[in-house]
Amino acid sequence: MGIDRLKYAGRTLSVALLASSVLAVSACQNGSVGGEEGADVEDVQEGENGEDDTGVEAETGSTVTVSAEVEEVLSDESFQLEGSNDWGDDEPLLVVSAPEDADVSEGDAVSVTGTVRDFDYATWSEDYELSDEARYEEFDGRQFIVADEVSQDVSPEESLEGSPEESPESSPEASPTE
C-alpha cells in the first residue's frame, strides 16, 4: 500500500455499531500509536456531537477506544494523549479514569476505552480528584474520555509488522458502541 493511500485511508473510516458488542471498522489509522483501525484522538476531539468528515461518530455518550502516546500526566486520575498532526490539529485529548487504571507515564503508548463526555472542570473535578483548575482550562468545553480501561500493551513495532490483531474484523481501536 503506497504512502498516499495510507494517508487517505487514515482519513477515511467507517464504523459499525451494535448495542451489545464492539464491531471492527475498516480503515487504516495514522493517528494511532498502535496501528489499530477506527476512531482516533481527533475523532473524539471534534466536539460536534455527531459525525465528522471521516464518518466516525464521536458523539457524547458513545464508547470509543483510541490509542496514542501519553503527552502529560496531570494527576493520579487524569492524563492527556498526544493529538495527531495528520489533520493539522495536534490538540491533546484529556482522559480521566479511576486511580488504578491511570498508572501511566509520559511517553507511554496506551490504548484507552471509555465514554466520550463534554468537559467542564466544575462537573468532573470532585469525582476524579482533578488537580489545579488552571491545568485543565484548555479542555473546557471540549470532548474528553472517561476511561473504563487503560492498557499499555500497544506496540508501534507490532503494528508496523502487521500483527493479526489488526484485521478489520477484530480491531479494538475505534469501536464506537452504544
TrEMBL record:
Q: Where is this region: Disordered?
A: 30-64, 147-178
Q: Which residues form the signal peptide?
A: 1-24
Asked whether the UniProt record includes Signal among its keywords, one would answer yes
Query: Biased composition, Acidic residues: where in the chain?
Result: 37-56, 155-168
Signal as UniProt keyword: yes
Keyword list (alphabetical) reads:
Signal
Residue ranges under compositional bias (Low complexity)? 169-178
Recorded superkingdom: Bacteria
Name of protein: DUF5666 domain-containing protein
Q: Which organism is it from?
A: Nocardiopsis aegyptia
